[in-house]
Q: What sequence folds into this?
């Protein structure tokens, strides 16, 4: 209990105090997994940062390393078989990878919380939602069972679950998919963390419910001025809520850009391919573009640019040299803030 | 809940009738004649045999015999043993507490040691410790209880002489220790393996990841979130085991000469005393069915997904 | 208890069954460039599993022993010489000689009896397993596929058989026969033992029949028998094979236990369980007469259990 009290007295987490310094910064993160077929290199030098109140969307196919990065941030990677050979994860300037297990535990849930994709399997099936929500307060704030339940009802109200008082003792399987995801959000929100990581929060939901849940998330983020990392493979979801986008491929960030810039002028052939494969009303009747080929096998990532076997613009250099993340500029060299692309031919892609 | 119990009880009736009828048929319809078995090798007079059979109702059609027998059973009349002329009810009343003591002893052993070993192995799957325990349970499973029984009897009673080779007083728990361990060994191995698998599986579940992501201390993640889920199949399995332990007692009681239900049924079988065999067997079926009913109810209590389904 | 070896796996299985069946289903999903089937994947795993290799070698050894016992010993299991060999102690140095493992109470070579006893155990084990697999798969598939009242009826029938403790039932049935040959024992055990496979098969079929490829086959107008044989059976096979392999060990233990109780194979048959029962009287003075056949039973059961365990682990990716 004393530890918890000390934590409570430590400087209040307030995004406004440290403007300029990002809330979370991932630096050159590498993650690999031992598998039967060799070492799978899931994350190969990822860099990104999120500030308070900012939303970063991380976009990529499954296996691109977007979820693994998030799990590394949360400290919930299965180790072994997972391993972090290299990299730093700075939370308010402190490297979490160097912290003790107990220090990290106190950050989890309280400072950084996570929303998972499949709320049904992510919630404990044999404990009531009220218990699972209240647990946050009981463990981190030492509240009594009764107070925790009152707080749980409050939280359920907060995420707009109707008749929260009656449903607090219900079990996860008794809720609809959308309601369950709201409970996940409520759980993440419980201690008003500084940062929320949402891993495909709406993928498992119906389209209409998707919008509601996204709106709720965006609204709560604004209200609490939280940082938000939104992991998704769906370009449609991010357009409205994200501030900036990091596109990942084979464990690397291949393009980084403010959201509307990216949609207007992609600077990487992979991003371009993704955008072209979205069905659009004004192209009715035309054949829909599809990126050819399959995502790479992470135990045998192609040499050079990992995207080269699938890239329509690939040249010899793409098969030999790994492209660094180039800063992207206007045709005349004018600065484009926050834009970069890991393509040897970014100029041709964006301006071509 | 009440309606569910009632429905389950109703479902049990045909199963009980079916199982006991099946045993009854196996006992009486197959070759083998109790009267002849009773007379042994002596030359017998067919007329005498026929009259004894008539007296015992063995000349009636099989179904009629079954109905007669069951009506008697429902009124608490188990019939009389042919050889000893003792009421079967008395035989059962004498032997049953002995078997219950033995089974209970074994059951406690199974629960404590089995679950304990399973947890120890399951929390660190695929380590040396886990592999070692799995191998140990494999050895236990592959040793039929008569093998284990004799090995332990030889080692503890004959070589080291720390216990008696046979049980002379079934209320003495130090004497019952060895038979209980032998009786428990197989169940124990299964419970350990089941617990281990269940824990190792749940350890990788999404909700466990959530529990860690919530910043709960490990103690709580394991004690509340993991155990609650992992032990559901184990608890239900243990319920079923009660019935299995009871039949397992036939062999164990034979080895250690424990005068329980197992020995009685074995003796009755060798004398082909149908009434005793069917009586005891019916009781075992009943216990087995009751155990599975309790298990189902327990399941519903422990797992809300079933409760509200 | 051998009856439990047989029955218990059922209880532990619902989860396993579903997952194993699930594998088969997901196998049809998007595969990496190097697509491996469930079976070749399992084989890949098995080849490097020492437990599997050891058990496979032991099983081959036991099979050879049960087919050609003459390869292992020139002594006859029935030659008795009371005067010379009464309870003779083993001569551990005399490998494969008649007196290697000593003599029993009638002066018969225990080594020869152990070698010749393999046939009874293996025949009963394999015979019962084949019989219960056929009966159980058939009943389980019918119940699982057709559902409704067919399922209710067959499930109730399964319940009735399950209500009878295996060992008790076997005792009652076998006790009625005076001349208990291998076939009588096989039929008696199969008669009582099919429920386990039936349950597993039913569970697997219920999962599989909802799979898209079965629905598709139905939509394309495939006949019921074709769907059952071509689509459902091959995919339900994995869990059935796993249970059957593990059960095999249990049936061998059951046969030995029944012989030990005096209701297994007839007195003239050479069987490990019978030898254990006869050795019982000399446990104090000549423990080897009991321990050696006991150890043979255990090694045999262990081999099949290890084999089944390895196969299950290879087929069930959840345990990887």
A:
């Amino acid at each position: 209990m004393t530890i918890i009290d000390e934590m409570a007295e430590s400087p209040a987490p307030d995004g406004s105090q440290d403007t300029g310094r990002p809330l979370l910064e991932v630096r050159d993160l590498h993650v690999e997994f031992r598998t039967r077929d060799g070492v799978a290199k899931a994350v190969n030098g990822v860099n990104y940062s999120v500030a308070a109140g900012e939303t970063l969307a991380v976009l990529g196919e499954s296996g691109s390393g977007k979820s693994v990065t998030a799990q590394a941030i949360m400290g919930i990677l299965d180790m072994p078989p997972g391993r972090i050979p290299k990299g730093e994860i700075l939370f308010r300037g402190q490297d979490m990878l160097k912290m003790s297990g107990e220090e990290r535990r106190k950050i989890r849930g309280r400072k950084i919380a996570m929303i998972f994709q499949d709320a049904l399997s992510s919630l404990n099936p044999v404990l009531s939602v009220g218990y699972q929500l209240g647990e946050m307060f009981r463990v981190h704030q030492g509240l009594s069972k009764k107070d925790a339940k009152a707080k749980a009802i409050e939280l359920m109200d907060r995420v707009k679950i109707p008749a929260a008082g009656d449903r607090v003792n219900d079990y996860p399987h008794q809720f609809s998919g959308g309601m369950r995801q709201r409970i996940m959000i409520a759980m993440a929100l419980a201690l008003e963390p500084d940062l929320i990581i949402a891993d495909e929060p709406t993928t498992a939901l119906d389209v209409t419910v998707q919008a509601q849940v996204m709106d709720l998330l965006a609204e709560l983020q604004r209200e609490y001025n939280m940082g938000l990392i939104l992991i998704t493979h769906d370009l449609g979801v991010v357009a409205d809520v994200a501030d900036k986008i990091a596109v990942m491929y084979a464990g690397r960030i291949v393009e980084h850009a403010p959201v509307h810039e990216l949609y207007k002028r992609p600077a990487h052939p992979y991003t371009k391919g993704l955008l072209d494969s979205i069905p659009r009303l004004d192209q009715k009747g035309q054949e829909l573009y599809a990126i050819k080929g399959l995502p790479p096998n992470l135990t045998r990532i192609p040499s050079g640019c990992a995207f080269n076997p699938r890239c329509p613009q690939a040249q010899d250099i793409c098969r030999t040299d790994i492209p660094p993340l180039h800063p992207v500029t206007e045709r005349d060299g004018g600065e484009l803030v926050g834009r970069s692309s890991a393509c040897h031919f970014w100029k041709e892609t964006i301006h071509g | 809940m009440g309606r569910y119990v009632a429905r389950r009880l109703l479902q049990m009736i045909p199963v009980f009738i079916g199982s006991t009828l099946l045993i009854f048929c196996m006992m009486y319809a197959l070759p083998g004649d109790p009267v002849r078995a009773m007379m042994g090798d002596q030359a017998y007079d067919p007329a005498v045999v026929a009259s004894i059979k008539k007296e015992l109702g063995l000349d009636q059609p099989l179904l009629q015999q079954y109905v007669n027998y069951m009506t008697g059973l429902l009124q608490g009349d188990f019939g009389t043993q042919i050889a000893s002329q003792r009421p079967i009810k008395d035989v059962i009343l004498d032997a049953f507490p002995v078997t219950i003591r033995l089974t209970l002893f074994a059951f406690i052993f199974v629960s404590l040691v089995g679950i304990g070993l399973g947890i120890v192995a399951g929390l660190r799957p695929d380590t040396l410790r886990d592999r070692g325990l799995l191998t140990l349970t494999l050895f236990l499973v592959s040793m039929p209880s008569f093998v284990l029984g004799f090995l332990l009897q030889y080692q503890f009673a004959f070589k080291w002489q720390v216990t008696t080779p046979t049980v002379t007083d079934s209320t003495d728990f130090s004497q019952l220790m060895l038979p209980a361990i032998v009786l428990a060994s197989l169940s124990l191995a299964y419970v350990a393996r089941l617990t281990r698998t269940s824990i190792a599986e749940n350890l990788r579940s999404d909700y466990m990841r959530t529990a860690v992501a919530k910043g709960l201390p490990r103690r709580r993640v394991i004690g509340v979130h993991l155990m609650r889920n992992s032990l559901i199949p184990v608890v239900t399995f243990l319920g079923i085991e009660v019935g299995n332990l009871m039949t397992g007692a036939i062999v164990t009681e034979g080895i250690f000469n424990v005068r329980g239900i197992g020995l009685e049924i074995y003796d009755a079988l060798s004398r082909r005393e149908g009434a005793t065999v069917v009586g005891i067997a019916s009781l075992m079926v009943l216990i087995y069915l009751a155990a599975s009913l309790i298990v189902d109810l327990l399941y519903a209590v422990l797992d809300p997904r079933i409760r509200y389904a | 208890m051998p009856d439990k070896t047989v029955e218990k796996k059922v209880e532990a299985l619902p989860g396993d069954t579903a997952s194993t069946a699930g594998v088969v289903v997901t196998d049809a999903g998007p595969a990496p460039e190097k697509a491996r089937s469930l079976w070749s994947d399992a084989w890949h795993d098995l080849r490097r599993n020492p437990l599997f290799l050891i058990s496979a070698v032991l099983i081959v050894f036991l099979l050879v022993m049960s087919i050609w016992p003459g390869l292992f010993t020139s002594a006859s299991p029935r030659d008795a010489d009371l005067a010379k060999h009464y309870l003779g102690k083993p001569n551990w140095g005399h490998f494969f000689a008649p007196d290697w493992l000593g003599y029993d109470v009638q002066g018969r070579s225990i080594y020869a009896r152990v070698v010749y006893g393999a046939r009874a155990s293996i025949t009963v084990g394999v015979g019962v397993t084949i019989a219960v697999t056929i009966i159980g798969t058939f009943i389980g598939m019918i119940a699982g596929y057709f559902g409704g009242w067919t399922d209710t009826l067959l499930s109730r029938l399964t319940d009735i058989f399950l209500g009878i403790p295996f060992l008790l039932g076997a005792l009652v049935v076998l006790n009625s026969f005076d001349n208990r040959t291998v076939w009588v024992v096989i039929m008696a055990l199969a008669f009582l033992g099919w429920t386990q496979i039936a349950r597993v098969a039913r569970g697997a079929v219920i999962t599989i029949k909802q799979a898209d490829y079965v629905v598709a086959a139905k939509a394309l107008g495939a006949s019921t028998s074709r769907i059952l044989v071509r689509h459902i059976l091959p995919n339900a096979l994995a869990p059935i094979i796993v249970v059957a392999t593990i059960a095999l060990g249990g049936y061998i233990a059951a046969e030995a236990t029944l012989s030990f109780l005096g209701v297994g194979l007839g007195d003239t048959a050479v069987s490990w369980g019978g030898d254990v029962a006869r050795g019982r009287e000399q446990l104090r003075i000549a423990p080897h007469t009991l321990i050696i056949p006991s150890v043979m039973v255990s090694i045999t059961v262990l081999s099949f259990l290890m084999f089944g365990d390895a196969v299950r682990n290879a087929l069930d990716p959840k345990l990887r």
DSSP finds 13 helices and no strands in chain B. The CA atoms of residues 113 and 188 of chain B lie 7 Å apart.
